[in-house]
Amino acid sequence: MGRGIRLLFSAWLLPLWAQAQRVSSLQFTRADFPESFAFGGGTSAYQYEGAAAEDGRTATIWDTYAHSARSYNDEPGDIASDGYHKYKEDVKLMSDMGLEAYSGRGEVNQKGLQFYNNVINELVKAGIQINAVLYHMDLPQTIEDEYGGWVSPRIIDDFTAYADVCFREFGDRVAHWTTMLEPNIMAQGGFDNGDLPPNRCSYPYGRNCTVGNSTVEPYLFVHHSLLAHASAVRLYRMKYKAAQKGIIGLNLYSMWLYPFTDSAEDIDATERAKNFLYGILHPLVFGEYPEAMRKAAGSRLPSFSHNESELVSWAFDFIGLNHYTSVYTSNFPKALEGVLHDFTADLAVFFRATKHDPPSTLILPGKMVDPQGLELILEYFQGEYGNLPFYIQENGYGGADGDLNDVERISYLSKYIASTLNSIRNGIDVRGYSVWSFMDLYEVFGGYNFHYGLVAVDFDTRERRRQPRRSGHWYSDFLKNNAVIEVEGDFFWKNNAVTEVGGDSATTKISHAQL
Description:
Elements: E1 6-8, E2 20-28, E3 38-42, H1 45-48, H2 61-66, H3 83-97, E4 101-105, H4 110-125, E5 129-135, H5 141-147, H6 154-170, E6 176-180, H7 183-191, H8 217-244, E7 247-259, H9 264-278, H10 281-286, H11 291-297, H12 306-312, E8 318-331, H13 343-347, E9 349-352, H14 371-385, E10 390-395, H15 407-425, E11 430-435, E12 455-457, E13 466-468, H16 470-480, E14 485-494, E15 497-501, E16 507-509
Parallel strand pairs: 3-4, 3-11, 4-5, 5-6, 6-7, 7-8, 8-10, 10-11
Antiparallel strand pairs: 1-2, 2-14, 8-9, 12-13, 14-15, 14-16
């Protein structure tokens, strides 16, 4: 594998600069990726398992949210995709599709231990690499009620004890651990405006606030998340790594940010947004928060003691990215008016999903299909923090149309897989790519009515019938049969690498074997 990228040249070449050439399309196969590179798909416990009232399962903050008036969805995820009862069928679907890795997330009680052991054993038998995520918005509600969960330093010891159980019980078969997902954006959604679990906020920053402090708690959440993550990493390295030989890292939600205009104010705002959204990496490399965050938040942002700084520094073996799109950012100076500021006001940035969308202070998913943005965010991280190892842990295309003939999803995934390959050829250390999602799930925004899956789930039936979409057959053909993907667009090739320019105009050709 790793034979290099095959290119289709147009009849003419336009030199962009020294040793650079413009081409009209890019062809590649699975064999063009490094041999150790892993392709997979993912699910998440609450979104997949169901069985909300079975086998001693207790409520999480996501359960509480989904059953509340705050939820964006009409129904809770009590049944979800019913993975608790259908996991054997699902692992067979993964194996048949040719998945090389599977990303799963969950919580643990005694019956939960048995369930996850069963799932892990099925995956091992199928030869599928397991990427386990310890936390994704599913904190036990009892912990939230007892001491406020993530806003209390008590969470650090409790999270470490939970991680210890997982490492001990599953580490003989799981060698790829992610401590938590997307803490960089959960600060706003969960602890500032209160739109997401655990729905903590304070007036006038959130809606229907009953508990919380939007000026302080977003920063407490980030701080305690980093310390809990680093504590779990230290535990794994000291107690388990030598025998289990695994790796452990942290996940971030990433979007590329384009200045809305070329004004100095919008350019500065874009850099400030990068510092706030991705500054969680700063302590992991340098032992302290970025200067822009410290200046904006002042004493509301906790500082690391000397020992804590040493604990968090380089407390990762890789960084996972959930990446879907890019957005436009502009300055919002009026956010800084007033005596008190929340996380959103400190950020002082407007976000736009497209050039023509209205501005919003909320960090929400965008609409653009912009594969170049993935390359740009990886280059940004490399420039700021060095050549870190990355896994693309989520990338996918969702919509209300659950059509089995999902050519738009195929087009989207083709472009982003091509950009992943381009990044590797440009020297970025990307080691894996996982489609979100392997099958339709209960989505945070859209519930049962928004579909990301390579495999369709009929949520209108009691059986939750599964059926691979066209994209599932296409992905299988790419993984098992080394099928060619051709992405057409405007590319340039320099220093033996291909980079896409203007990804929105790219189209995808599908081979007859994928139909």
